[in-house]
Amino acid sequence: MASASTPLPLPPYNPQIYKRLIARANERAKLISERPTSAFVREVFGTNANGNGGGVVVVEHDWHTLPSKLLKLANYLREHPSFQSLQQQQLENADNSNCGDKRMESFDTVRRQLAAAVFAHTMKSKNNSFIDNFRRLFEALLNARQKKWRMENSMMMDDSMGIEDNSNNDNNIDEEWLLQEEEQLYQSLAISGWVPIQLRHPFREALQSVTMNVIQQLVAGNYDEEGILDRVLQWKNDILLPWTYSVIGPDTFINEKWEAQLEYIASECFIHVRMKELFDLTTDYPDSLPAIRELSVALERTGRLWYAQLSVEWRNALISRLLHPGAETSQIIEVYISTIKVLRAMDPSGELLQVVTQPVREYLHGRTDTIRCIITSLTDEENGGELYEELRRHDAKPLEEAQLDEDDDDEPPTFDWEPLPSILKRRGVISGQVGRVASSSRRSGDILAMLVGIYGSKELFVKEYSIMLADKLLGNLEFDTDKDVHNLELLKLRFGEASLHQCEVMVKDIDDSKRIQSNIHSTLHTHDRRGDFGDPPVVDAAIVSHNFWPALQREEMKYHPTIKSKVDEFSIEYAKLKNPRRLIWMKQLGSVEIEVEAYEEDADGNLVSHIKDVSCTPAHANLLAYFEDRSEWASKALSIETKMSEDMVRKRMGFWVNQRVVQSRRLRDGDDIMYNLVSVSEASDANDTSFQQDDDGQEHAVSIGAHEEEAMKVYESYIIGMLKNLGQLPLDRIHSMLKTFVAGSDHMYDKTTQQLAVFLKQLCKEEKLECSPDGLYQLVSQNESRKPPR
Amino acid sequence: MPPTMITTTSPNNNNRNNTKLKIKIKRWHGVARWTWGVGSSGERNNNNNDDDMDHGEMDDDDGICIVCQGPYEGAAPGCKYPGDECPVVWGRCGHAFHLQCVSAWLRSQEQGDASGGGSATPSCPTCRAEWEYGGSNSAASSGSGNNGAVLTNTRGQSAGESGS
């Protein structure tokens, strides 16, 4: 008969125990088969008493009959003379203890004989169902009690405990019957004296499975409520304690310290339930704080034995639910942060933190956009969340300081220092990884330090930050740097002044640009000698100290004369203002707002026009400027005029085609593309439908591509150098040599062999290197010079 | 007109030909870098004409101040920001250095004088010619009051004035 509540996987049976019991029982069964007790047992338990030598009985597979059988056995014992005399003696309350002992002994003998007979006769059956039935009986009893208790408490407790109430009505009858029989059953059990010995295992199993079920119902999914553990313990006091007491009897209860055992069992079950929910606890972090606190209390209560398994479960939960391609990097970082926070609350030693988060750190290290993600959320006020707050913490410590804390201790070193005992080593499950716990900053769980620790150094972060800052500053049309200055100051607190010097210069450049721009504009305004049509100066510039900026994209481009005159005006004023400095324009960078007016004479000779405002890159505007001179241009001609590559011309003209300013068509002969202006009527028709097309991403990513390329360029000279000296080299060799030689210089060699292979292929394409079929790389020129003699 | 124009056969040919375009620039936000205009030789590029400005874009060869071995557009040791805080000065011989760098050099020469060793007159770190501020384009280095202020406690001030 199944219990009412949902079954959980039970702690596994130990079949060994039963086998041993059976073997022993069989031996004894032969010995005792002639005793009177055996005869009685046969009478109670079965009919075919004389079936075989041992007189083994086929046991009925129903625990419902157990109470009555137990009663019979108990009555047999009660009627036994030795029991009678024992009772009598207790009634007389005699001081003569010797005599009492003797009587006790004789009763014990009878009892033992009976037990031996029973178990000898019942053990042999296939499924240990006799013992099993006891487990069921105990379970049913406990469940019945639990249900009753729940009914009584349903007024106080809310619905979280009443869900199972309407399960199946068959059980209700059982329960009522059981509760009626209860008292008698316990008495029978007490007289038989089986519970502490023969029925120890079924009893414990029943206890554990019911506790597990109940706690599951009480606890699961409920993170944000305080006092759940208290409720569990309350339940233990209300149900488990009296039940155990009555089943096991007062003597054993005290002798075996069942009160403590029950508390342990309850805590353990609590931990088990929570262990399945670790991931949800983590993601719900601030709300799940009560659950986390209680979990750590329970962990302490069980003597920290569960830490090791907890960390394994946690790791597995993170791996299976978080570290897969479907999760966004920002999500992973978020969970990582909450994991750090949870563990900070749970385990101040930081040991769990190290073990649990290790796979996350490794995984994040493998993702390319991790740093970018971290920095974005560090500096993003609106969406930054946790990290933004973290950066603004008042007790923020510089990273180096946090990492060096241990060394800077003022206390003199002592020789009797011993490492703290590892909480994980007790069961030795993951002892191997504990050794990795290195710096105190990791122990302390400083989130930023943990994040930086993924990469081992802050340099990468600073580098990535400078790239992002460059992008942001160059896109900052208002030259408004307040926020960046603010962020920079905060970052300086954590990363140190020196490492962010470069970024400071960048911000200052933009500040200066603002001043220079207003200065130049006012100068141009005052001695504007162009009189009435003197339009206000339109050019401004972000003037960078390029040594301090990440590599910016460069591309050759020639301005259209009208644009050039305007830009030069600015350059000349700058040269006057900052003599002897002068400007070198990075012509394709920046942004431009223009008003495009298409006009024509219609059939009646009236002037019609269509005006639209467009913002685009300088390169786009430059191209369109050529259409002022002529309404038709071929892509090749434009490429020659602007010095842009023809590909880029086509790509950029695509923008104007989309804007319905020009239309394109392919010429029949050759691959030239012809662009001509769209007529006014068409342009105005298309006005509403003109969709906002994003500029091609490449124009925006001011520096990323250029940056990586430049990084690789550094290695090119090394590679060419080593090939010049050594002739042919395989990929691995080049890789290891680069590792050795480049390590000492400013540019660390941190590429993988795959990245190197890609780069080498690139060099082959540029015809600088050659790759032989057996994977050896060599210089091209060398090869050619060698060939002719053959 | 290029010959390609003739091959057009689109039906709205007429329309297209009389459509004109006018562009009004409302704002041109460019990106530029600044340079002291010192070539890799350490001597000034004086041809400040338009052609140079165009080709300058591809001119990657930044000069290096031989005293600090840093680019002229960088910051000399002890300076936080490049540019205004770390100006470049020219000697009469045409060689350029960061102001801080050449001042330190001249100071060390002076001290060498006092202790008996070293040359009698301050010399250019590059060519050992007698050092005098100014160079060919004198307005440049000593023109701004800013630079003059920095120069006050160095020997350079008198030289700067004589240059201008």
From TrEMBL, chain A:
<comment type="similarity">
    <text>Belongs to the cullin family.</text>
</comment>
<keyword id="KW-0498">Mitosis</keyword>
<dbReference type="Pfam" id="PF26557">
    <property type="entry name" value="Cullin_AB"/>
</dbReference>
<dbReference type="InterPro" id="IPR014786">
    <property type="entry name" value="ANAPC2_C"/>
</dbReference>
<dbReference type="Pfam" id="PF08672">
    <property type="entry name" value="ANAPC2"/>
</dbReference>
<keyword id="KW-0132">Cell division</keyword>
<dbReference type="GO" id="GO:0051301">
    <property type="term" value="P:cell division"/>
</dbReference>
<dbReference type="InterPro" id="IPR044554">
    <property type="entry name" value="ANAPC2"/>
</dbReference>
<protein>
    <recommendedName>
        <fullName>Anaphase-promoting complex subunit 2</fullName>
    </recommendedName>
</protein>
<feature type="domain" description="Cullin family profile">
    <location>
        <begin position="448"/>
        <end position="657"/>
    </location>
</feature>
<dbReference type="InterPro" id="IPR036388">
    <property type="entry name" value="WH-like_DNA-bd_sf"/>
</dbReference>
<dbReference type="InterPro" id="IPR036317">
    <property type="entry name" value="Cullin_homology_sf"/>
</dbReference>
<dbReference type="Pfam" id="PF25773">
    <property type="entry name" value="TPR_ANAPC2"/>
</dbReference>
<keyword id="KW-0131">Cell cycle</keyword>
<dbReference type="InterPro" id="IPR059120">
    <property type="entry name" value="Cullin-like_AB"/>
</dbReference>
<keyword id="KW-0833">Ubl conjugation pathway</keyword>
<dbReference type="InterPro" id="IPR016158">
    <property type="entry name" value="Cullin_homology"/>
</dbReference>
<dbReference type="GO" id="GO:0005634">
    <property type="term" value="C:nucleus"/>
</dbReference>
<dbReference type="InterPro" id="IPR057975">
    <property type="entry name" value="TPR_ANAPC2"/>
</dbReference>
<dbReference type="InterPro" id="IPR036390">
    <property type="entry name" value="WH_DNA-bd_sf"/>
</dbReference>
Automatic annotation (TrEMBL), chain B:
<dbReference type="InterPro" id="IPR051031">
    <property type="entry name" value="RING-box_E3_Ubiquitin_Ligase"/>
</dbReference>
<protein>
    <recommendedName>
        <fullName>Anaphase-promoting complex subunit 11</fullName>
    </recommendedName>
</protein>
<feature type="compositionally biased region" description="Polar residues">
    <location>
        <begin position="150"/>
        <end position="164"/>
    </location>
</feature>
<dbReference type="InterPro" id="IPR013083">
    <property type="entry name" value="Znf_RING/FYVE/PHD"/>
</dbReference>
<dbReference type="GO" id="GO:0008270">
    <property type="term" value="F:zinc ion binding"/>
</dbReference>
<dbReference type="InterPro" id="IPR024991">
    <property type="entry name" value="RING-H2_APC11"/>
</dbReference>
<feature type="domain" description="RING-type">
    <location>
        <begin position="65"/>
        <end position="128"/>
    </location>
</feature>
<feature type="compositionally biased region" description="Low complexity">
    <location>
        <begin position="135"/>
        <end position="149"/>
    </location>
</feature>
<dbReference type="GO" id="GO:0051301">
    <property type="term" value="P:cell division"/>
</dbReference>
<keyword id="KW-0833">Ubl conjugation pathway</keyword>
<dbReference type="Pfam" id="PF12861">
    <property type="entry name" value="zf-ANAPC11"/>
</dbReference>
<keyword id="KW-0479">Metal-binding</keyword>
<dbReference type="InterPro" id="IPR001841">
    <property type="entry name" value="Znf_RING"/>
</dbReference>
<keyword id="KW-0132">Cell division</keyword>
<feature type="region of interest" description="Disordered">
    <location>
        <begin position="37"/>
        <end position="56"/>
    </location>
</feature>
<feature type="region of interest" description="Disordered">
    <location>
        <begin position="135"/>
        <end position="164"/>
    </location>
</feature>
<keyword id="KW-0863">Zinc-finger</keyword>
<keyword id="KW-0131">Cell cycle</keyword>
<keyword id="KW-0498">Mitosis</keyword>
<keyword id="KW-0862">Zinc</keyword>
